[in-house]
Amino acid sequence: MTELNAVRRLDLGYFIRPAEEAGTPHPRVEAVLAYLVDTADGLLLFDTGLGRGDDETEAHYRPHRRPLPEALADAGVRLDDIALVVNCHLHFDHIGGNPLLPGRPIFTQSVELATARAGDYTFDHLVDFPGADLRELDGTAEIAPGIRIVPTPGHTAGHQSLIVSHADGDVTVLAGQAYDLATDFSCAVLARRAAADGAAAPLPPYHPWLDTLAELHPRRVLFAHDAAVWHPDA
Fold first, then answer.
1. Where are the strands (E) in the chain, listed by range?
2. d(CA 217, CA 156)
3. pTM confidence score
4. Tens-place pLDDT, residues 209-231
5. How far apart are CA 32 and CA 157, in angstroms?
6. 57 DSSP assignment
Protein backbone atom coordinates (compact mmCIF):
# COMPACT_ATOMS: atom_id res chain seq x y z
CA MET A 1 0.00 0.00 0.00
CA THR A 2 1.36 3.43 -0.97
CA GLU A 3 2.05 5.84 1.88
CA LEU A 4 -0.41 8.72 2.20
CA ASN A 5 0.87 11.87 0.45
CA ALA A 6 3.72 9.91 -1.13
CA VAL A 7 5.19 11.59 -4.21
CA ARG A 8 6.20 9.76 -7.39
CA ARG A 9 7.84 11.35 -10.43
CA LEU A 10 6.74 10.71 -14.02
CA ASP A 11 8.99 11.15 -17.07
CA LEU A 12 6.88 12.71 -19.83
CA GLY A 13 9.64 13.39 -22.34
CA TYR A 14 11.73 16.43 -23.14
CA PHE A 15 12.09 19.44 -25.41
CA ILE A 16 15.09 21.32 -26.78
CA ARG A 17 15.29 24.93 -25.66
CA PRO A 18 17.12 27.10 -28.21
CA ALA A 19 20.39 28.67 -27.10
CA GLU A 20 18.97 32.18 -27.22
CA GLU A 21 16.28 31.19 -24.70
CA ALA A 22 18.59 29.09 -22.53
CA GLY A 23 21.15 31.89 -22.30
CA THR A 24 23.91 29.45 -23.17
CA PRO A 25 26.18 28.91 -26.20
CA HIS A 26 24.27 25.76 -27.12
CA PRO A 27 20.67 24.53 -26.98
CA ARG A 28 19.63 22.85 -23.74
CA VAL A 29 17.58 19.66 -23.54
CA GLU A 30 15.06 19.99 -20.71
CA ALA A 31 13.07 17.25 -19.04
CA VAL A 32 9.30 17.36 -18.83
CA LEU A 33 8.36 15.94 -15.44
CA ALA A 34 5.07 15.42 -13.66
CA TYR A 35 4.32 14.13 -10.18
CA LEU A 36 1.79 11.76 -8.66
CA VAL A 37 0.68 12.38 -5.08
CA ASP A 38 -1.36 9.78 -3.19
CA THR A 39 -3.75 12.01 -1.22
CA ALA A 40 -6.60 11.15 1.11
CA ASP A 41 -8.96 12.38 -1.62
CA GLY A 42 -7.43 10.20 -4.34
CA LEU A 43 -4.52 10.42 -6.75
CA LEU A 44 -3.38 13.93 -7.61
CA LEU A 45 -1.42 14.66 -10.77
CA PHE A 46 0.83 17.73 -10.74
CA ASP A 47 1.31 18.78 -14.39
CA THR A 48 0.38 16.56 -17.31
CA GLY A 49 3.08 16.86 -19.96
CA LEU A 50 3.71 18.38 -23.37
CA GLY A 51 0.72 19.39 -25.42
CA ARG A 52 0.69 19.72 -29.18
CA GLY A 53 0.75 23.26 -30.47
CA ASP A 54 1.18 24.73 -33.90
CA ASP A 55 3.83 23.83 -36.44
CA GLU A 56 5.96 26.83 -35.51
CA THR A 57 6.11 25.81 -31.85
CA GLU A 58 6.85 22.21 -32.75
CA ALA A 59 9.79 23.27 -34.92
CA HIS A 60 11.04 25.73 -32.31
CA TYR A 61 11.18 23.29 -29.36
CA ARG A 62 11.48 19.91 -31.16
CA PRO A 63 9.59 18.09 -28.39
CA HIS A 64 9.79 14.37 -27.68
CA ARG A 65 6.66 13.25 -25.88
CA ARG A 66 6.11 10.26 -23.68
CA PRO A 67 2.36 9.61 -23.63
CA LEU A 68 0.75 10.25 -20.26
CA PRO A 69 -1.14 6.90 -20.23
CA GLU A 70 2.15 5.07 -20.81
CA ALA A 71 3.94 6.94 -18.01
CA LEU A 72 1.04 6.32 -15.65
CA ALA A 73 0.93 2.63 -16.55
CA ASP A 74 4.59 2.27 -15.60
CA ALA A 75 3.59 3.60 -12.17
CA GLY A 76 0.72 1.11 -11.96
CA VAL A 77 -1.88 3.83 -12.53
CA ARG A 78 -4.60 4.44 -15.14
CA LEU A 79 -6.08 7.72 -16.32
CA ASP A 80 -9.29 6.76 -14.53
CA ASP A 81 -7.38 6.63 -11.24
CA ILE A 82 -6.56 10.35 -11.31
CA ALA A 83 -8.91 12.33 -9.06
CA LEU A 84 -7.31 15.79 -8.97
CA VAL A 85 -5.06 17.83 -11.26
CA VAL A 86 -2.84 20.79 -10.40
CA ASN A 87 -0.91 22.69 -13.06
CA CYS A 88 1.94 24.89 -11.93
CA HIS A 89 0.96 27.18 -14.83
CA LEU A 90 -0.82 26.90 -18.16
CA HIS A 91 1.96 26.90 -20.75
CA PHE A 92 1.60 24.07 -23.27
CA ASP A 93 4.45 21.99 -21.83
CA HIS A 94 2.65 21.57 -18.49
CA ILE A 95 -0.97 20.93 -19.54
CA GLY A 96 -0.70 18.59 -22.52
CA GLY A 97 -2.50 15.73 -20.80
CA ASN A 98 -5.32 17.82 -19.33
CA PRO A 99 -7.78 16.98 -22.16
CA LEU A 100 -7.34 13.30 -21.29
CA LEU A 101 -8.80 14.03 -17.85
CA PRO A 102 -12.28 15.51 -18.38
CA GLY A 103 -14.38 15.94 -15.25
CA ARG A 104 -11.43 16.09 -12.86
CA PRO A 105 -10.97 19.31 -10.89
CA ILE A 106 -8.02 21.23 -12.36
CA PHE A 107 -6.69 23.82 -9.92
CA THR A 108 -5.17 27.02 -11.27
CA GLN A 109 -4.78 30.60 -10.11
CA SER A 110 -7.42 33.02 -11.42
CA VAL A 111 -4.79 35.36 -12.82
CA GLU A 112 -3.18 32.45 -14.69
CA LEU A 113 -6.44 31.37 -16.27
CA ALA A 114 -7.31 34.94 -17.23
CA THR A 115 -3.90 35.33 -18.88
CA ALA A 116 -4.28 32.04 -20.73
CA ARG A 117 -7.69 33.05 -22.06
CA ALA A 118 -6.46 36.48 -23.16
CA GLY A 119 -4.50 34.90 -26.03
CA ASP A 120 -0.93 34.69 -27.28
CA TYR A 121 0.08 32.67 -24.21
CA THR A 122 -0.78 29.00 -24.63
CA PHE A 123 -3.05 26.81 -26.79
CA ASP A 124 -6.77 27.15 -26.19
CA HIS A 125 -7.59 23.49 -26.89
CA LEU A 126 -5.46 22.47 -23.90
CA VAL A 127 -7.25 24.84 -21.50
CA ASP A 128 -10.97 24.92 -22.34
CA PHE A 129 -11.48 21.42 -23.69
CA PRO A 130 -14.78 19.47 -23.50
CA GLY A 131 -15.38 18.44 -19.91
CA ALA A 132 -12.76 20.78 -18.43
CA ASP A 133 -13.46 21.43 -14.73
CA LEU A 134 -11.24 24.42 -13.99
CA ARG A 135 -11.16 25.48 -10.33
CA GLU A 136 -9.89 29.03 -9.92
CA LEU A 137 -7.91 30.01 -6.83
CA ASP A 138 -6.91 33.42 -5.55
CA GLY A 139 -3.88 32.62 -3.46
CA THR A 140 -3.12 29.80 -1.05
CA ALA A 141 -5.56 26.91 -0.69
CA GLU A 142 -5.63 23.49 0.97
CA ILE A 143 -7.16 21.16 -1.61
CA ALA A 144 -6.78 17.86 0.30
CA PRO A 145 -5.53 16.92 3.77
CA GLY A 146 -1.86 17.90 3.94
CA ILE A 147 -1.89 19.21 0.35
CA ARG A 148 -1.62 22.97 -0.12
CA ILE A 149 -1.22 25.21 -3.14
CA VAL A 150 0.96 28.30 -2.71
CA PRO A 151 1.40 31.06 -5.30
CA THR A 152 5.00 31.31 -6.55
CA PRO A 153 4.84 34.00 -9.25
CA GLY A 154 7.81 34.85 -11.39
CA HIS A 155 7.97 32.61 -14.42
CA THR A 156 4.33 33.62 -14.90
CA ALA A 157 2.13 35.90 -12.81
CA GLY A 158 -0.08 32.96 -11.85
CA HIS A 159 2.56 30.32 -11.23
CA GLN A 160 1.85 28.08 -8.23
CA SER A 161 3.63 25.32 -6.33
CA LEU A 162 2.31 22.36 -4.36
CA ILE A 163 3.20 21.79 -0.71
CA VAL A 164 2.96 18.17 0.38
CA SER A 165 3.05 17.46 4.13
CA HIS A 166 3.99 13.91 5.13
CA ALA A 167 2.98 11.91 8.20
CA ASP A 168 6.50 12.08 9.65
CA GLY A 169 6.44 15.88 9.56
CA ASP A 170 8.61 16.26 6.45
CA VAL A 171 7.52 18.58 3.67
CA THR A 172 8.03 18.17 -0.08
CA VAL A 173 7.65 21.15 -2.40
CA LEU A 174 6.66 20.54 -6.01
CA ALA A 175 8.01 23.80 -7.39
CA GLY A 176 7.11 23.32 -11.05
CA GLN A 177 8.88 25.99 -13.06
CA ALA A 178 9.24 28.46 -10.22
CA TYR A 179 12.89 28.00 -11.19
CA ASP A 180 14.05 26.18 -14.30
CA LEU A 181 16.87 24.36 -12.53
CA ALA A 182 17.57 23.14 -9.00
CA THR A 183 20.83 25.12 -9.13
CA ASP A 184 18.90 28.33 -9.80
CA PHE A 185 16.70 27.62 -6.79
CA SER A 186 19.76 26.92 -4.65
CA CYS A 187 21.33 30.25 -5.71
CA ALA A 188 18.14 32.08 -4.76
CA VAL A 189 18.06 30.39 -1.35
CA LEU A 190 21.67 31.47 -0.77
CA ALA A 191 20.83 35.02 -1.87
CA ARG A 192 18.09 35.10 0.75
CA ARG A 193 20.51 33.76 3.35
CA ALA A 194 23.12 36.37 2.46
CA ALA A 195 20.54 39.15 2.79
CA ALA A 196 19.44 37.80 6.18
CA ASP A 197 23.08 37.68 7.29
CA GLY A 198 23.43 41.37 6.48
CA ALA A 199 25.82 40.94 3.55
CA ALA A 200 26.67 44.23 1.89
CA ALA A 201 25.09 45.26 -1.41
CA PRO A 202 24.99 44.50 -4.22
CA LEU A 203 23.13 41.22 -3.75
CA PRO A 204 21.10 39.21 -6.24
CA PRO A 205 17.33 39.57 -5.90
CA TYR A 206 15.12 36.67 -4.89
CA HIS A 207 11.39 36.07 -4.95
CA PRO A 208 9.61 37.13 -1.71
CA TRP A 209 7.70 33.85 -1.64
CA LEU A 210 10.96 32.09 -0.75
CA ASP A 211 10.28 33.37 2.77
CA THR A 212 7.04 31.37 2.78
CA LEU A 213 8.78 28.21 1.61
CA ALA A 214 11.60 28.64 4.12
CA GLU A 215 9.09 28.73 6.97
CA LEU A 216 7.91 25.27 5.91
CA HIS A 217 11.43 23.78 6.29
CA PRO A 218 11.07 21.54 3.21
CA ARG A 219 13.21 18.41 3.11
CA ARG A 220 13.20 18.36 -0.69
CA VAL A 221 12.12 20.55 -3.60
CA LEU A 222 11.29 19.01 -6.97
CA PHE A 223 11.07 20.71 -10.36
CA ALA A 224 9.26 20.39 -13.69
CA HIS A 225 12.28 20.67 -15.99
CA ASP A 226 15.13 19.36 -13.85
CA ALA A 227 15.49 15.85 -12.41
CA ALA A 228 17.86 17.16 -9.73
CA VAL A 229 16.39 17.47 -6.23
CA TRP A 230 17.16 20.33 -3.85
CA HIS A 231 17.82 19.37 -0.21
CA PRO A 232 18.52 21.89 2.55
CA ASP A 233 21.78 20.15 3.44
CA ALA A 234 22.94 19.61 -0.16
1. 7-17, 28-39, 42-46, 64-65, 82-86, 105-109, 133-137, 141-144, 147-151, 160-165, 171-174, 220-222
2. 24
3. 0.97
4. 999 999 999 999 999 999 999 99
5. 21
6. H
